[in-house]
């Protein structure tokens, strides 16, 4: 896809900023008052987050797999009616009306976990921007504890405890995030921009999840 090839020229954070800017532009250009989460740009951001998590290494393999599966699930639903489901909220509405939102492998549940994965990513980057010298293991653990752990059951939590032992050091992670010609200050600015764009969107999404009574879903 041409769009993705163009993105590869910049860092994952820069590409995510572009996608978030597009998502916000689509939202502000919309003429009706109903909730709107543009599906394709949202999923592009999630795919870029996978690339960021890949930099952490095998530690994030479980989360990466979950994100990928959840993106594919929503993409399949979107492909069934691209016009209607260009707004992700329409998918939530459909499953809510059919009383399927909490059942099986629903798109509603996929959306919940994608949102929580974005929460985790924001929390992690916020810590690294605030304290670049913080140990990576501590940053990941703290971010996990406040964003994902409250919703994970025993099995999922155990998997993450094992994965924490494989985390690279902070300097290595930062170097992996940077482009070859990028310095730490520029990367920090990009991370701050990414956070500032994504946080208001996540706040709106959490309000939508509360409206559809999806905010308390837990895993095994």
From TrEMBL:
Domain Glycolipid transfer protein: 37-178
Pfam families hit by this protein: GLTP (PF08718)
InterPro entries given in the database record: GLTP_sf (IPR036497), Glycolipid_transfer_prot_dom (IPR014830)
Protein name: Glycolipid transfer protein domain-containing protein
Organism phylogeny: Eukaryota, Viridiplantae, Streptophyta, Embryophyta, Tracheophyta
């Amino acid at each position: 896809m041409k769009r993705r090839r163009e993105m590869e020229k910049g860092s994952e954070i820069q590409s995510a900023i572009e996608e978030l800017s597009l998502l916000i532009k689509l939202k502000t250009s919309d003429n009706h008052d109903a909730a709107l989460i543009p599906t394709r740009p949202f999923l592009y951001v999630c795919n870029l987050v996978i690339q960021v998590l890949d930099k952490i290494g095998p530690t994030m393999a479980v989360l990466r797999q979950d994100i990928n599966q959840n993106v594919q699930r929503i993409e399949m639903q979107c492909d069934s009616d691209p016009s209607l489901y260009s707004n992700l909220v329409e998918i939530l509405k459909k499953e809510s009306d059919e009383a399927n939102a909490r059942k099986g492998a629903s798109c509603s549940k996929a959306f919940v976990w994608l949102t929580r994965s974005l929460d985790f990513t924001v929390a992690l980057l916020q810590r690294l921007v605030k304290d670049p010298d913080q140990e990576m293991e501590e940053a990941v653990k703290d971010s996990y504890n406040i964003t994902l752990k409250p919703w994970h059951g025993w099995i999922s939590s155990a998997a993450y405890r094992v994965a924490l032992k494989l985390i690279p050091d902070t300097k290595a992670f930062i170097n992996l995030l940077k482009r070859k010609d990028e310095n730490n200050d520029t990367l920090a600015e990009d991370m701050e921009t990414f956070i500032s764009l994504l946080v208001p969107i996540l706040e709106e999404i959490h309000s939508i999840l509360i409206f559809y009574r999806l905010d308390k879903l837990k895993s095994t």
